[in-house]
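The material for today's practical consists of a large collection of protein records. There is nothing in a record beyond a sequence line and a structure line. Backbone structure tokens are a discrete shorthand for how the chain folds in space. Nothing more is needed to start thinking about how sequence determines fold. As an example, a complete record with its sequence and its structure tokens follows.
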Amino acid sequence: MPFLEHFDETLDLNATENYDLSVQVSFDRISFCILDTIRKKFVMIREFEPEVQNYLNREEIYGYISRDDFLSRKYRKVHVITPSPKFTLVPVPLYDQARVKDYFRFNHIKEEGSLIFTDKLTNPDTYIIYSVQEQLSSVIDKFFMGSQRMHHLKPLLTHISDNKKGVHGYYTHLHIEKEFFNIIVFGNSTMKLCNSYNYKSGTDILYFLLSAFRNLDIRQDEPVYLSGLTKPGDDFSHLLSGYFRNVRYSVPSGKCSFSYVFNEPGLHRYINLFSSATCE
């Protein structure tokens, strides 16, 4: 059964060729949203989480996708997001396709059973080189062949690029996944920091965020934007507000609207899904 589900009354299972599908697939959850491209409106969101264990295995992911009435349909376009803490950014002038594995291994050890992929960004003008478990990649190839695959930073940086316009000073974004988080900082439209950190508790996240503010000489009253697995009123938000005076939850940007059935205060959890449709 879905962990979460909202859908608009206009959603039509037989009209999916007029829709765009955005899916985020990982071993800790599967989530997807549907954009009605005629009405320019998001009309559905659904998420599955593990029912017993903390993680899904390949067979469980396979089962959820194959049994879902919407994931098995044909769409106008499909975007598939894979979160991964192991990535390297390479500026376009320095990029050489023949050296992709060398770039990755400069910062990370390639795990057995993993594959390396690349994404091209426009703001900043950079390539993302990242790894995905082969078991996960094989599921994506089977069910979403021909889709636009992307690292989670691609839609996230698209969202940040839209929202930092007109911001003076620093723009700091904290995105939280189940076992890792990203800190992304722009100052005067220039990327100052983009990194991934593993964590076990909220105090780990706080430590790295405070270190980033100290090293970049950012005042603690500058805003911190949040997305991913946190919400207002949880333990982490209380911890963070004790050190940062201006904590904000990210709001999806762009020209598309949302069905009234969506829970607006929780949309920051799915920023990557909503932004992926604008990453082409």
Remarks:
- The radius of gyration is 19 Å.
- Residues 87-143+150-156 form a domain with the Nucleotidyltransferase; domain 5 fold (CATH 3.30.420.250).
- The mean pLDDT is 92.
